[in-house]
Design a protein that fits this description.
CATH topology: MetI-like fold
Radius of gyration: 23 Å
Helix content: 55-70%
CATH class: Mainly Alpha
Number of domains: 1
Largest sheet: none
Number of strands: 0
Distance between the termini: 26 Å
Strand content: under 5%
CATH architecture: Orthogonal Bundle
Length: 299
């Protein structure tokens, strides 16, 4: 299922014959239509792609501006999965390095990093996420205007990734620190130090690879969490900004039309994709935990 969602996002320009930005007010709030065109009718479409849909047929219906909902869901998946992957990867990388060095070096370094983790975990993360996202996205603020001039159209994506990383690395750091505290007492770690390996080499070449099972599981779980955070912030208007499309800002745009005829479909399909994607990543994380745990009993 995870692979299916990734492939749908990657090949969305070839799967859908429509442009996710094209508007047609005469086609507003069309109901989902699952009929497909025969290959002989493909010449009716301006840009026929892999699925030869008849022009005007919209399997997920259309939104308030007459745009194809399925096309926007597929393209929104590209942004949501990209944000989820980069945020999860970078936060896992940062947490793994900090946790590994805290556990390996110990002493004052461990105390400083551990207390910093405690401080970060004690902060009210949701209000700070909202405040920070709003400040960085606001052109009336000097920093927001500078970021807008520097990053251009990719500003909202980079901001949301950075904000998620800032508040999500602590759990990984704690898990990896505990694993390293155990691994550094093992014989292979003593042998590496006896051979003259530097602290950096011992941590990166010997300890972190042996803690990779914990890191991989945490990364897969962080993917789902990052997608949820992005969707929540975009729904509130503080995440991915139009004309870029994500599942979260699709839900945000749909909330004013839920009681219109066929308006419910504008929200149902992006919400369903968020639910299924996060569920799949959580199940993947649970499966990886069982598969990579050497202490698990297999019958």
């Amino acid at each position: 299922m995870v692979l299916t969602f990734v492939l749908l996002a990657l090949f969305s320009p070839w799967i859908s014959p429509y442009d996710y930005r094209n508007q047609n007010l005469s086609l507003r709030f069309q109901a989902p239509d699952l009929s497909l065109a025969a290959s002989a009718q493909a010449d009716k479409c301006l840009q026929p792609r892999t699925l030869l849909w008849e022009c005007g047929v919209h399997p997920f219906g259309t939104d308030q501006l007459g745009r194809d909902v399925l096309t926007r869901v597929l393209h929104g998946g590209r942004v949501s999965l990209l944000v989820g992957f980069l945020a999860a990867f970078l936060s896992t990388l940062l947490g793994s390095l900090l946790g590994a060095f805290a556990g390996y070096i110990g002493g004052v370094i461990d105390s400083i990093i551990s207390r910093f983790i405690d401080i970060m975990l004690s902060l009210p993360q949701i209000p700070l996420l909202l405040i920070l996202s709003a400040l960085l996205s606001n052109r009336d603020v000097a920093l927001g205007q500078w970021l807008d001039d520097w990053l251009g159209g990719s500003k909202s994506i980079i901001i949301i990734i950075s904000v998620i990383i800032l508040f999500s690395w602590m759990g990984t750091a704690r898990l990896v620190r505990g694993e390293i505290l155990s691994l550094k007492q093992r014989e292979f770690s003593d042998a590496a130090r006896a051979l003259g390996s530097s602290h950096w080499r011992v941590v990166v070449r010997h300890l972190i690879p042996n803690a990779m099972a914990v890191i991989i599981v945490q990364f897969s779980l962080m993917m789902g969490e990052s997608i949820l955070v992005e969707s929540g912030l975009s729904f509130l208007g503080l995440g991915i900004q139009p004309p870029a499309v994500s599942w979260g800002n699709m839900l945000s745009g749909a909330q004013g039309f839920l009681f219109r005829t066929n308006g419910i479909f504008i929200a149902v399909f992006p919400g369903l994709f968020i639910f299924l994607t996060v569920l799949c990543f959580n199940l993947l994380g649970d499966g990886l935990r069982d598969a990579l745990d050497p202490r698990s009993v297999r019958k």
